[in-house]
Amino acid sequence: MPTDAINALKAADSEAAPSHQPTLGFVGGLRWMWRQLTSMRTALILLFLLALGAVPGSIFPQRGASPLRVGEYLQDHSTAGPWLDRFGLFDVYASSWFAAIYLLLMVSLAGCILPRCIQHGRNLRSVPPATPRNLARMPEHRTFTTDATESEVVDAAEASLRSARFRLRPRTAPGTDASSMAAEKGYLHELGNLVFHVSLLVLLVGVAWGSWFGYHGTVVIVEGDGFANTLTQYDDFVPGRGFSTSMLAPFSFTMDQFDARFLKDGPNRGQPDQYTADVTYRVNLDADPRQQQLQVNKPLNVNGTKVFLLGHGYAPVFTVRDGNGDVAWSGAVPALPQDPSFTSTTVVKVPDAQPEQLGFNVTVTPTPPTQVDPTTGPRSIFPEANDPRVYLGAWAGDLGLDSGVPQNVYQLDSSAMEQLGREDLAVGQTWKLPDGRGSITFDRLAEFANVQVAYDPGRWLVLLAAVAAIIGISLSLLIRRRRVWVRTSVDGQGRTLVDVAGLAQTEWAALAQEVDAVVASLPGAQTAVEEQK
To answer: Given the DSSP bridges, would you call strands 290-295 and 272-282 parallel, antiparallel or unpaired?
Structure first.
């Protein structure tokens, strides 16, 4: 083509009206957004974001679990703390962004699963596809000739496939050749896949239901003391967003006896062997008392509220007299274990002592050492209470309880106090404080149990969803969707030529065996195999 003609065409194209791309419009834009949200790729991304969003909940202290630690963190990190608080990192699971991810994931899963369920229902009502023209192209193909008639072969194939629980294409279906048979099997593969994904959605609903309307709390109960299921009795209480006090089951119990057993010999000496707690409980105020023994993983169940035995420790019992000789404080104080031998520490605060407030740092050794190491301090040599001993540090002055700043019950603020000295006591011994400040008596060493009270209304839904998910994924992995066809024709010698073929949705080694089983059930197949040999 001449150069002038080419330039003329280019000029004409440049002067042509510009092409306009079709616009989606408002409805089209919404449809596009819905398709993106309900795609499996988006669901996987949201699932990853949900897992990623839960990470700060294990890094930063959470208000629902420990408001005191959150306050300490904000005080220690005056710059970063408020910014972290603005983004809800101290209350991750109740934050708006975490709830948005959670809800979007549920909507995405529902949008993915619902169309697939509808399509699967249509597949169940549809008939298997007709026999293809060229069966030799199938992954598994067998052919042989027999003296049996075409009708006899097709009837035998129908009986064999029906006994193997294949779905058969009716001979009266449009496009069906009377000399062929089509069958399909393995619909449970897709059903298992759908059950698995539906179970994940139900699992999310169950977890959300339980966390919204449930609650859990912990409490330390000293042997001989009781507990009533009221808010004031808890040491730590985490309610759901939809919680109300009417959800608290009106039960109570008393811990009659606690028994902790430890291995006394062998390579695992000192390891806990068994924790048991004998309790007397009432399901309500008017109910008769009942007895039950709590063990680890064997909780007390009261109308859906469970009481779990979590841990164990020691609670020394003291009597403190002030400078006037009056009993200023008496009772048991749970001590926190510091090592496997249950060397434990605690604090005794006596704000009502006269003339000055008293405070004591306490180290408990259930089985004391023969000699205290001056570097490491007193350390128990065995977790069982054999001749227990306490090591005390006494302080007098202002405990700082009226400052308005919350204090940890296991920490003693001695900044405005004077140290009075140190002493160690066996059971029954008394230490008289210097300068007439009073005395402290170590009465006995009691035991305490750390229990958790939990109510989760969605636990049964979560359990059923988990079982269904396991069944669904098992069906999806163990079963394959496959099709088998049998076609007959007459060869040039007047004998019946039989073609048997199989096709699986995914590669499956057992398909060859299934096709061979169909071939073996047809008349004349064995004779044909022997002739080929």
So the answer is: antiparallel
Range with the lowest mean pLDDT among 27-41, 135-149, 354-368?
27-41
DSSP reduced 3-state for 14: helix
Token pair 């000739």 is found at: 145
Q: By C-alpha distance, which of 357, 449, 431 is closest to 400?
A: 357
Confidence of residue 38 (pLDDT cuts 50, 70, 90): confident
- Do the beta carbons of residue 329 and residue 350 sit within 8 Å? yes
Cα gap 373→361, rounded to integer Å = 18
Residue 288 lies in a domain: yes
Same domain (yes/no): 349, 360: yes
Residues 308 and 322 in one domain: no
Residue 275: strand pairing partners: 260
Provide CB contacts within 8 A for 90, sequence distance 6+: 60, 61, 62, 63, 70, 73, 84
Residue recorded with tokens 């619902």: 114
3-state secondary structure 398-447: CCCCCCCCCCCCCCCCCCCEEEEEEEEEECCCEEECHHHCCEEEEEEEEE
The per-residue pLDDT for range 437-464, each reduced to its tens digit, is 899 999 999 999 888 899 988 889 999 9
DSSP 113-158: HHHHHHHHHHHHHSPPPPPPS-GGGSSEEEEEEESS-HHHHHHHHH
Q: Taking the CB of residue 102, how many other CB atoms lie within 10 A of it?
A: 18
My answer on whether 93 and 148 are in the same domain is: no
Per-residue model confidence (pLDDT) at position 67: 67
CA 186 to chain centre: 32
Same domain, residue pair 220 and 110: no
3-state SS assignment for residue 476? helix
Domain containing residue 90: 27-123
Three-state secondary structure readout of 314-366:
EEEEEEEECCCCCEEEEEECCCEECCCCCCEEEEEEECCCCCCEEEEEEEEEC
